[in-house]
Amino acid sequence: MNMDFKSLVESIKKTKISTLRLDEADYFEAVFTWQEMPPVESLLASFFSNHVYRAPAKIPDAAAQLIGTFGGLRSGQTLYFLETMQEHYFAMFWPWGDGVSVTLKLGIKKPVPTLSRDGPKNIWRKLKLTFYGVLGGVRKA
Questions:
Q1: pLDDT for 68-82, tens place per residue?
Q2: What is the pLDDT of residue 127?
Q3: How many Å apart are CA 84 and CA 120, to the nearest integer?
Q4: 109 class by beta-carbon count within 10 Å (0-12 exposed, 13-18 middle, 19+ buried)
Q5: Is there a single domain that holds both residue 17 and residue 70?
Q6: Same domain (yes/no): 22, 49
Q7: 71: which DSSP letter?
Q8: Residues 21 and 51 occupy one common structural domain
Q9: Are residues 28 and 65 in the same domain?
Q10: How far apart are CA 40 and CA 64, in angstroms?
Q11: Model pLDDT for residues 102-133, shown as the tens digit of each residue
Q12: Same structural domain for residues 92 and 132?
């Protein structure tokens, strides 16, 4: 990753965009024509390095969970995904049926904590201890 997310978005905004849909601190969405995409793809390749997945490629579980909220990765779609301990970065190309336009969805999400194998039991135990502690009936586990 040669630049930060904000710099990536600012660089993309300097390219030719057909329609800017959303520009927020953690999410950017715009429509391009395929002819306008080469400079955008170059910027994404620089940011995401080799973390590119083209449908129907197998994608990391964290990526599948994140893009599931967007409908998953379908035929003809491309996902860029970079996972760090603090954040997950993603970029998705959603081609239109007209063969001319493509939507770029670019964002940052905080990773969703995963539970260990016995995680639910430990969480339930902690909840019970907290609940009983609040009520004054502290129990030993």
A1: 777 777 777 888 888
A2: 56
A3: 25
A4: middle
A5: yes
A6: yes
A7: T
A8: yes
A9: yes
A10: 23
A11: 999 999 987 665 554 445 555 555 555 555 55
A12: no
Report pTM: 0.71
Q: What is the pLDDT of residue 120?
A: 53
Adjacency order of strands within the sheet including 78-83: 19-23, 27-33, 101-109, 88-95, 78-83, 52-54
Grade residue 58 by pLDDT with cuts at 50, 70 and 90: confident
55 shares a domain with 10: yes
Please tell me whether residue 105 adopts helix, strand or coil conformation. strand
By residue range, what is the domain housing residue 141?
Answer: 114-141
Identify the residue whose tokens are 């995680």.
119
By the 8 A CB rule, do 19 and 28 touch? Answer: no
As beta bridge partners, residue 3 has none
Rounded to the nearest integer, the mean pLDDT of the chain is 79
